[in-house]
Amino acid sequence: MDLGKYRFYSEAARGLKKPELVLKGAYVFMAHSGEFVQGDVAVADGIVLGVGSYSGEKEIDLTGKYLCPGFIDSHLHLESTLVTPGELIRQAAGCGTTTFIVDPHESANVSGSEGIDYILKQTEEVPANVFVMVPSCVPATHVDDNGCILTAGKMKAYLDCPRILGLGEVMDAVSVISGSVSMHEKLALFEGRVRDGHAPFLNSGDLAAYALAGISTDHECVDYEYAMAECRNGMYVLIREGSAARNLDAIIRGLVSRHTDTSFFCFCTDDKHIEEIRREGHINYNVKRAVQLGLPVEKALKMATIQAAQCYGLKHLGAVAPGYQADFVVLDNLADLNVLEVYHKGRLIRADEKKEIPPCPPALKNTVHLQHFTQDHLRLPHRGGKAHVLRMIEGQIATEDLMEEVPCSKTEGDLLFAPGDGYLKIAAVERHKGTGKTGVGIVKGFGIRGGAIASSVSHDSHNLIVIGDNDRDMYLAVQELVRSQGGYTITENGKVYETLPLPVMGLMSDAGYEEVNRVLKKMIAKAHEMGIPEGFDPFITLSFMALPVIPEIRITPRGVYLVKEDRLLETPFEK
């Protein structure tokens, strides 16, 4: 710090000079001690000078209100919100989130380094702190067909970027544990920095080996028991509450009932739609829900602030204390926890302030490439006996592998799988290089009737994925995504009901969040009307059915994939 500035700050902190801003009379959450102290907060040049009794050049009366550090989202994919990064940041910042730890592996899987650069560029001038983790698994596994490959050599270009914190979620746990040379080159590249994890359902020995590689976080815990297993291995648990994966209740209930130390727990959203953020909130929702479940508000706030900052080595964030950045959330009370105002670097954030959306490079809006795809690619011969069925689970992105007898019909002399009795058809179509690869499987639990639903958002390779009860509507849905160069679509009775175009890498819209919100709300309501259970977010849940790092069974353009066995099947039927 410049000595001249320090001298002024020192005098202001001691009450000898007036700081430029004082927030008066609030109950201030002191994150280090976990207590509320009533006082004034002195701010100059975007940093906190002290908490005590002050008068300033400008004063804001917060008497009776509660002032906390800005909230931190420990892990998210901006692309999953469906809007451009700057728009999402402004909306979430209005909910009190002032720091975002972003993993752009969705963009990287489609467009490689250009996709990462897009995320960095779009978040340069936003009213929040946006840090980026370099994607570690592009592609996620050896069975993926994605758009680009990101090697350790290509990652080196990002090491000197001041907003790069470390290595993004390491999804290929097998490569870590087995000592893969290419994977450990990436881990070594980020020695001394945070290396995020993605390690659902590992046994105790594998989890120990995974942590031994220097991976220090994970957001894939779905229950208290596994969260504690990771915590005992020295890992931070990032409790996820997104649109499809809702793990907060199960973990928080365990923490509360067992009076567990929460020092190594933080919050994240991972994947959350803009429509849901607007309706429900962001990290503020995680805090509020945790408190509703019985967690002391002080513990919940520490998880949303200083613990996340400490996890990622952000020594200037996460607290209202001398020298910390002046990022604040003003709450009405400790029961409702409604966000009244949000400050970034001492300046009030206006969430609905309109800003021009920076243009997207043309190449990033031309990423859906299919060749010679016909309706026949969706035919699934019935080979008799039982078939592997992908059962979808409400509120989770994990699936269950069922072996069941499924319906069939004879068409032009061929015995084919026939959707019915709760069984639907699911397909993944390669869209990056026009290879023509199409995997077809059987799904249960999704419930759609009289049509199909499809998406170009399909983690993590982002090929086209479609579920339906007839080939005509499924084929039409795929063709509609080619026309729109990506997006969400619903088809019904041979017609397109509605499409939400996502032309930016087939992942995001640049039409503005109001339009995205309007169309998405209409489409989600229609999806439920067509039979998809209310417990599913139709599109986000669909988007995870091709992710081959989450047990137990997935669909890929190469066929049905059994995750635990690391085995691809050309057909779901096995005799």
Description:
By secondary structure, the chain is an alpha/beta fold. Helix 11 (283-292) packs antiparallel against helix 12 (297-304).
Percentage of residues in strands: 25-35%
How would you describe the oligomerization state of the chains in this entry? single chain
Helices and strands: which structural class? alpha/beta
Average pLDDT, rounded to a whole number, is: 95
Share of helix, binned:
25-40%
Radius of gyration: 24 Å
**Which runs of at least 5 residues are low in confidence (pLDDT < 50)?**
none
Work out the number of β strands.
29
Termini Cα gap: 71 Å
List the helices and strands and how they pair.
Elements: H1 3-13, E1 21-30, E2 35-44, E3 47-52, E4 58-61, E5 66-69, E6 71-76, H2 85-93, E7 97-102, H3 105-122, E8 129-134, H4 152-155, E9 164-170, H5 173-178, H6 181-189, E10 194-197, H7 204-212, E11 217-218, H8 224-232, E12 236-240, H9 248-257, E13 265-268, H10 274-280, H11 283-292, H12 297-304, H13 306-311, E14 328-331, E15 339-344, E16 347-348, E17 387-392, E18 399-404, E19 408-411, E20 414-417, E21 423-429, E22 438-444, E23 451-455, E24 464-468, H14 471-484, E25 487-492, E26 495-501, H15 513-529, H16 538-543, E27 553-556, E28 559-562, E29 567-569
Parallel strand pairs: 1-4, 1-5, 6-7, 7-8, 8-9, 9-10, 10-11, 11-12, 12-13, 17-22
Antiparallel strand pairs: 1-2, 2-3, 5-14, 14-15, 15-16, 17-18, 19-20, 21-22, 21-24, 23-24, 23-25, 25-26, 27-28, 28-29
Helix pairs in contact: 11-12
Question: Which key phrases capture this entry?
Answer:
alpha/beta; single chain; 8-stranded mixed beta sheet
